[in-house]
Amino acid sequence: MALTREDVLRAVDEWLWVPEDAERVDTPDGVLVRWPTWFEHPASLMRFHPVGDPAEALAGFCAQARDRGADRLQVWVTLDADPALEGVVRAAGGSPEETLAVLALDLTAARPDLGPAPGLELRRDDHDLATHADYYRLNAEVFGGSMPAEEELRASLARQVPEQWSVIAYEQGRAVGSGGITVAGDVARLWGGCTLEEARGRGVYRAVLDARLRAGADHGCTMALVKGNTATSGPILRRAGFTAYGEERLFQVPLG
């Protein structure tokens, strides 16, 4: 089955993750999320599709984020957004923070050979508290933020569902990399791929990617969908056979 751009755009449009312990605000102009206190960013405008004046809509979201105690607001200009929104965000003081390539892989075709991963042990994070904690520890070290309290970790583990988990890579007993997967119908959504800096270049990312692709195929998925940083994971994913369908850009708007 050859993937079409329409297939990928539809799958991207259906993908919006907001954890249960975050506050989500839906308006006709977009979706604002106030993240938990341990998260690396206080607030994000995950969807921004203003129906009226874009500058006024953005100012309204900034005010709502500020009212919720945020000192800055992440703003995503997504794949299907009006490109002119970038100028609106920059005019509000937004500075570019990250560019993600939207990439997809046909899972009905032969899977890519990602090579051996000697010396690595792979575990799912949804079976025990220690492995689940390693997922959060890796994310805090690589992406920023802090570790949730043990009570929050236990609550997070209790909320795990069979369709979503992370693969944790261990090297000599130490967690060195991870990556998440969500099985959403026939789409395997891949997210949160990271590797400790000192463990890079040893096949950790590829091993975690391979495990998730196999899991997606085993669950009957026909597409693997991922958003990869154009400077880091994006090139690895392209070499693994993924095709890019466009880019999404993240801006940081100060709220001082």
UniProtKB/TrEMBL annotation:
GO MF, one annotated term: acyltransferase activity, transferring groups other than amino-acyl groups
PROSITE patterns cross-referenced by the UniProt entry: GNAT
InterPro entries linked: Acyl_CoA_acyltransferase (IPR016181), GNAT_dom (IPR000182)
Coiled-coil stretches: none
A Pfam cross-reference name: Acetyltransf_1
Database matches in SUPFAM superfamilies: Acyl-CoA N-acyltransferases (Nat)
Name of the featured protein: Unannotated protein
